[in-house]
Amino acid sequence: MKKALIYQQGSLAGILEQTEGGTYQFTYTEGYHGEPVSLTMSTEKKMYHFDHFPSFLEGLLPEGERLEAFLKLCKIDRNDYFTQLLTLGEDLVGSLEVYPNYSVNRSNS
């Protein structure tokens, strides 16, 4: 099972997990009261389930020629969105940053 730490504006917002069944789950970190990671994912609800890779995260990934170059350079499968997200995690568009679950050197963790 893959896991990623999702940071919103420098604060740990939650954890994204890919289950063995291929579904996804995002759980807000206990005590997180910052901005939601997506406009459709209020922090009032602590856990969200997705049958497919969450579209709000897929939208942060590169497209077109940039995607092709990235996939070739990093040797990542086109359909492996989770690995793409982890690889680009610090260089995403917007206020989110994504780190592998074993990353512990963040100042706000």
Which key features would you list for this structure?
109 residues, alpha+beta, five-stranded antiparallel β-sheet, 3 helices, 5 strands
Structure characterization notes:
This protein has 109 residues and is α+β, with helices and mostly antiparallel strands. It has helices spanning 55-58, 64-74, 81-88, and strands at 2-8, 11-18, 24-28, 47-50, 96-100. Strands 4-3-2-1-5 form a 5-stranded antiparallel sheet, with helices on one face. The two termini are 21 Å apart. The mean pLDDT is 91.
For the termini, the CA-CA separation is 21 Å
Order of helices and strands: EEEEHHHE
Strand content: 25-35%
Instruction: Bin the helical content.
Output: 10-25%
Q: How many DSSP H or I helices?
A: 3
Overall 3D geometry? globular
Query: Mean pLDDT across all residues, rounded?
Result: 91
What's the quick description here?
This protein is an alpha+beta fold and 109 residues long. The protein has helices spanning 55-58, 64-74, 81-88, and strands at residues 2-8, 11-18, 24-28, 47-50, 96-100.
Please describe the topology of this protein:
Elements: E1 2-8, E2 11-18, E3 24-28, E4 47-50, H1 55-58, H2 64-74, H3 81-88, E5 96-100
Antiparallel strand pairs: 1-2, 1-5, 2-3, 3-4
